[in-house]
Design goal:
The protein is mostly helical. Helix 1 packs across helix 2. The chain is globular.
């Protein structure tokens, strides 16, 4: 799970042009400085490519929520 967290943190840093980003259990995507809906779509595509998974429209809804929910989604799909 730590590997997934680290990869997603790096994706968010690269996409959001942040020098540092650490996921906390209560972190929301909208809490990320400068983050918008387009960033969320791009992150979804990056996650699908990186982890070789498909994210349905229904599952995508969690991307508007807590970052940790996305980590759990990835973990559930690759285990």
């Amino acid at each position: 799970m730590e590997d997934i967290v680290s990869k997603v943190e790096n994706m968010i840093m690269e996409q959001g042009f942040l020098d540092e980003f650490k996921i906390k259990p209560d972190t929301r995507f909208l809490d990320i400085p400068g983050w918008d809906d387009l960033d969320t779509v791009e992150l979804c595509i990056t996650i699908e490519d990186e982890f070789n998974i498909e994210i349905s429209d229904e599952e995508y809804e969690c991307f508007d929520n807590l970052v940790w929910k996305v980590i759990e989604l990835i973990h559930d799909k690759i285990k």
